[in-house]
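Input record (one chain):
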Amino acid sequence: YDAGQYPQFAVTVDVVILTIVGDELQVLLVRRRDDPYKGMWALPGGFKRPDETLAEAAARELHEETGVQAATLLSEFGAYGDPGRDPRMNVVSIGFLAVVRDVGDLGAGTDAESASLFPVAEVLGGEVELAFDHDKIVRDAVDRARRDLETTSLATAFIGPTFTLRNLRNVFEAVWETELDAANFHRTVTRAGLVKPTGMRAAPGPSGGKPAEEFEFGDDWQAAPMRRPRQSD
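The corresponding structure, as predicted from the sequence alone:
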């Protein structure tokens, strides 16, 4: 084996953190402190160290650059290695996705000037220009989350293990960017056995009224998942 016969390249990790603020899907970005792309917004991430796994590198970079702890939630979803994607050298980046209920207090560190949440719709719409090929990485991560929402209990990562049907519908509407009919949604998830009542009720809202019933995911969610409505042309 002669290492000189093979091209040199680096491995990095980029982390997409999704959360819902109000009724809007948002993504966590950092402002770069150094070149290349100094001053531009980017995903939290950085170079993998020789003595750590990819997941360990993702968790470390996320915490160093934003203060967010999400090591147990990270899942790998893609690899990015197009020539020229990084002007410094040949770099292959591994994308990681995590969904969190609350990012907590954000604090920038290492090579990040600041960290902030941005509406996903603005990022994907080009209103927020990202460094490198991070717009593609965000798009792929959101597509992954939209698919997982159909077939897994991913929604609980946004709102917790118990929820009201309105909370649950808000998650689907935010992630899918589609307004759902409240009555149809209620009928679908309850009749199909996708959710089941916990016997508890949520705390009353500021306007008073009868507290909403709380639910949890049922055993039939995997067998009869929700399907994302088709977008009309």
